[in-house]
Amino acid sequence: MHGVLAVLMKVYSLDRLFFSDKAALRKYGTTSQRIENKMASNPPMENGAIQGPSQQRSVEGDYLVETATLEDTLQQLNVLMKENKELKDRERTQPYSCARTGARFPRSTRKRASQYGVALKETNNSMKDRFEGLAAWKDKQKEERDFLEGKLGEAKERVSVLTKRNEELKKKLQVLEKAEGAVEGESGHWSMQIEALKAQIVRLQAEKSDLVAMNSELQLKMRPSSPEGFIEICIAEGGVDVTKDFPNGPKDSCMTRSDLTVSRQDSEEYTVSQLLQSLRKETQKVEKLEVELLASRERVAELEFAAVKQGEAETQTSLPVGEMEGSTAAAQANGQTQQDAPQKEADTELENLKAQMSKLFRELQQAQAKLDDAEDMKKSLHDRCRSMEKDVAMLKAQLVEKLQVQTDNQRLKLQLENMIKMQQRKTGDERCRDMEKDLAMLRAQLVEKQQVQTENEHLKLQVASMQSMITTEQGKAEEDRCRDMEKDLAMLRAQLVERQQVQTENEQLKLQVESMQSVNKMEQRRADDERTNTAKVMEEYTKLNEDYNGLKQEMKTKETENEKLKLQVDRIQAMIRLEQKKAEDERTNMALVKEEYTKLYEDYNALKQEMKKKEPILSNEEVRELQATLDAAEKALATKQQKIDEMKQEFYKKDKELETISVFQAQAEVYSSDFYAERAAREKIHEEKEHLAGQLEYLKQQNRQLQDEMESMGRRNLNEMQKRHTSLGGAPGGGGPQLGGRGTENIPEHVCPKCNEMLPDLDSLQIHIMDCII
């Protein structure tokens, strides 16, 4: 559009050089100013651009595509045409004054003419720039064509490679189909063996999880407060992982599969070592308990001996009391003058005895309260043990359920792998077919693209011809030019639209080729991933076999250890029963001591009342006797106090022993449950062995029947051969002379290898060999 306006401006400038009328010049100036303003408002356009509000940049060219409405351009052209006609009419009516007079043009006209010359130069330069842009676009189109041709060649090579692979795969499939018929029998046998191994692996994993749970429960019971005694049980896809929290250990739970397997093996070894250490500690504790039980027995014997002595001392104290009553009756007759001083001393001593007796009574009450507290603690410990047993049963049930879920997951994985393999076999041919179809589509698209490129070249040639026509036809009439330019503009717009469509189609084709390449890469990656997955599955299978063998050995060792622990538990239970009996005996002794104490206290009160009633005058001898009785009573009280302290210490120790005994009882119950589970497993194995033995006997019977049938068949064959031999021996009558005439021929010898007997015929030789050997 800018080029058309520039041409019109040039025409007007040439016409203006010959104008002499001022009004015409003014009018022409107004029109030229209008055109200049229009050019200033609309920037210069590049090659193939159309002026308008909306501008779109193409993908490969750097020029702008401006779309404008045709109505504005047509209006401007009509206005210019009218002005041109008016000027021509005035030219005809008014001759050129300047041309007739030969005068020069004014300065203003010269300036404008020079300006329009500069404008023409600028238009020429813009046309050159457009031509260079078109040449660059053509070069880019050639480069794209070469690139697409190279891609097409690569695609053809890939298609040829894929067809070759397809043929090779078809041949391999035929070979495999032939071999599958022979391998089906063996595959069934191997599949049965694999299923049996899987079942054994599942059993071992279940047993392994039970052992790990038992170990964790034992450690939690033995060390509930220690932070290092916590054992974490993690059930993953492959089995049960046992990890113990260390203070400086790793805290990240997300690990790779290889790190998980290594940590799993380390944790399993660590749990086994912990089990062994706990068993050793328990044996040491059992030995310590046995030593302590012996010591407690000795202490009980000492206490019994001390109780006997105490009974004798009490009898001795009762005798002086009776003597003291007799002496008081005799002393009352002597007098009351000498009673004041010793009576005061006796009163003080009696008060001291009362205080000591009250202290002893309080201490006995405290000991009784402590015994009651110990019994309450024992009951609470029993309740805790029962709750722990219930929790253990719940945990075992949950572990069994988790193991069942793991086995189901493994079966589903195997089924998925089989389905994937079948799909890979089936989709080999389908992929080749899809690739062939895609290549055919790409070829068709490339043919269309070549056609579009040829059309683009034709359009370029047309544009060049139009530009040449524009340069050559500048001297023609403006109306014809405007009409032709309108038509050319419409054609160019349509061609530009088609070119944009072609470019979009080229981009789509490029994207399709790239998507096909990405799909091929993804398929190759999937195949590589499937290969790596199969290799990992095989490695896991070998590891599981190794774990199975190691677990077998561990089970044997643990069975022996369980038997030893059961014997130890039986011993501990017997010792516990003895200790309980001893504690009951001690309680009865304490009750007797309390009763004796109450009796003494009552006797003391009675004596005190009698003393208050009688108030006799005591002699020095009686005071000495009373002091002796007081000393004996103090000694008896001191011995009782020592015994009470010893009993307190023993009660404290026995409370601790009862706590450990509850733990041992829980361990014994766990070991007994394991023993019963192992017994059930052994019974199942024994039943399976009996079933297999029955199958073996049935197979042996079938083998014997087959052997009998073979022997009968051999005998029948021998009888038939004997009959054949007899029929051959009796049939030829004149065979002697004929054989005699053939003396020079080589006759084959039929000799028995055992007895070296010559036989005439092969059948007779076979019959003889059977008889000779049997």
TrEMBL record:
Stretches assigned to coiled coil: 138-221, 272-306, 432-650, 682-716
Bias-annotated ranges (Low complexity): 329-341
InterPro entries associated with the record: CC2-LZ_dom, NEMO_N, NEMO_ZF, Optineurin/NFkB_EssMod
Assigned keywords, A-Z: Coiled coil, Cytoplasm, Cytoplasmic vesicle, Endosome, Golgi apparatus, Metal-binding, Zinc, Zinc-finger
Pfam families from the UniProt entry: CC2-LZ, NEMO, zf_C2H2_10
Protein name, per record: Optineurin
Cross-referenced Gene3D superfamilies: L1 transposable element, trimerization domain (1.20.5.390), Nemo cc2-lz domain - 1d5 darpin complex (1.20.5.990)
Function summary: May act by regulating membrane trafficking and cellular morphogenesis.
Lineage, highest ranks first: Eukaryota, Metazoa, Chordata, Craniata, Vertebrata
Gene Ontology CC terms: autophagosome; Golgi apparatus; nucleus; perinuclear region of cytoplasm; recycling endosome
Ranges for domain CCHC NOA-type: 744-774
CDD domains: UBAN
GO molecular function, one term: zinc ion binding
GO biological process: Golgi ribbon formation; protein localization to Golgi apparatus; regulation of canonical NF-kappaB signal transduction
Protein location: Cytoplasm, Perinuclear region; Golgi apparatus; Golgi apparatus, trans-Golgi network; Cytoplasmic vesicle, Autophagosome
Source species: Conger conger (Conger eel)
UniProt xrefs under PROSITE patterns: ZF_CCHC_NOA
Comp. bias (Gly residues): 730-743
Annotated stretches, region: Disordered: 326-347, 724-743
Main location: cytoplasm
